[in-house]
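Budget justification aside, the reviewers requested a transparent look at the raw inputs and outputs of the sequence design task funded under Objective 1. We therefore reproduce one unedited record. The lines immediately below are the structure tokens for a 385-residue chain.
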């Protein structure tokens, strides 16, 4: 009697979606290897806070057997949503649901979520320092992975899952689509120990997220754990606005002065989010894939998360959708007798769902950065809260 060998599953990218997929597969006795370009789990900052939705992020965590661990670290109070006018007046303030963390969309720092997922995996599952440079199809239908470090041997896989983000290498084998600039750039800044060092800005932010949006500009301030507030200074502007201004992004004083010029006429309190930063500035132009983004079914390859459906953060669904993708793909691999049948079933659900979410994200960013964005955002918040 012969037995079919277990498929060799390679997940490219140790983000929330790829790690969720690996965790669920391991829980059902299916091995997967995660390859990530970072040198270690602590190689770079993981970004701001995330709200986990019951039907997507929380569902994925429950499927992975990690919901209780998540709830132990989540911040229900982080769901507070506040809209502020450019004059600094609070226009709308939605308190979070009752303290029960299972209600609504409790918040968690990206780094905490990633740590929770990483700690749930068997040692050696994630191969750090493995930057994928190309994927070669082989004659037997498998694929060979090549890495930037010449000392790392190539690896063969029966299934390659592209969880490698906006500029995915795996996507190139499936689709000619590339991310397109949305017209909006965020300049990221931050306040540490905000309640003590920046009490007025901490008070204005509240316990969750504060937005001040008007006339194609705005501020988004998010509470993170440990007294940190992460700030996104947003502008509808040219993708290379800093070059056109002759600006060196490493010159903190010059960036501050340029941003103050951009936001002339805004409240001094809100301008404090520019001048008060103690983390410097990071330029983050926002990109999105075309809507809808689809690809022909290709044996041995598939995508999840931003690699499949990169969209603006105004969907509110990015990490949630990536984790739901990871959970659905893992379940398909568990439930179907062949890898190809599993991919077919997964993509049948993934593609229409992601197209709907991406269309909503495009509508969201266009409303948030428009001439009348203050009125649009207030109407949206009033309707949905």
């Amino acid at each position: 009697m012969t037995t079919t060998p277990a498929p060799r599953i390679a997940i490219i990218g140790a983000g929330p979606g790829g790690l969720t997929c690996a965790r669920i597969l391991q829980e059902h006795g299916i091995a997967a290897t995660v390859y990530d370009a970072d040198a270690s789990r602590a190689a770079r900052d993981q970004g701001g806070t995330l709200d986990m939705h019951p039907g997507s992020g929380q569902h994925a965590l429950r499927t992975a057997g990690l919901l209780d661990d998540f709830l132990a670290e989540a911040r229900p109070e982080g769901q507070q949503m506040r809209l502020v006018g450019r004059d600094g007046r609070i226009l709308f303030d939605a308190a979070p649901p009752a303290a029960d963390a299972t209600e609504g969309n409790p918040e968690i720092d990206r780094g905490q979520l990633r740590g929770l997922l990483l700690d749930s995996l068997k040692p050696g599952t994630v191969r750090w320092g493995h930057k994928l440079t190309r994927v070669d199809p082989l004659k037997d239908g498998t694929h060979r992975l090549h890495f930037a470090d010449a000392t790392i041997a190539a690896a063969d896989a029966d299934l390659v899952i592209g969880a490698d983000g906006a500029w995915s290498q795996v996507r190139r084998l499936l689709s000619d689509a590339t991310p397109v600039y949305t017209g909006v750039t965020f300049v990221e800044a931050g306040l540490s120990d905000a309640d003590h060092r920046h009490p007025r800005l901490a008070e204005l932010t509240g316990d969750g997220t504060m937005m001040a949006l008007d006339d194609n500009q705005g501020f988004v301030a998010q509470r993170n754990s440990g007294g940190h507030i992460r700030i996104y200074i947003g502008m509808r502007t040219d993708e290379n606005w800093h070059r056109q201004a002759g600006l060196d992004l490493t010159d903190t004083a010059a960036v501050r002065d340029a941003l103050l010029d951009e936001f002339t006429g805004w409240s001094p309190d809100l301008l404090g989010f520019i001048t008060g930063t103690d983390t410097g500035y990071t330029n983050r132009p926002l990109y999105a894939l075309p809507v809808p983004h689809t690809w022909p079914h290709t044996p041995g390859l598939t995508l999840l998360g931003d690699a499949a459906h990169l969209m603006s953060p105004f969907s509110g669904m990015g990490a949630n959708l990536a984790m739901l993708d990871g959970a659905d793909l893992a379940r398909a691999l568990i439930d179907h007798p062949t890898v190809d049948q599993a991919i077919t079933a997964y993509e049948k659900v993934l593609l229409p769902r992601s197209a709907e979410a991406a269309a909503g994200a495009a509508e969201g960013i266009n409303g948030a950065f428009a001439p009348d964005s203050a009125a649009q955002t207030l109407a949206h918040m009033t309707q949905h809260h």
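The domain at 181-286 is CATH 3.30.9.30 (D-Amino Acid Oxidase; Chain A, domain 2). The first helix runs from residue 16 to 27. Computational costs for records of this kind are itemized in the attached budget.
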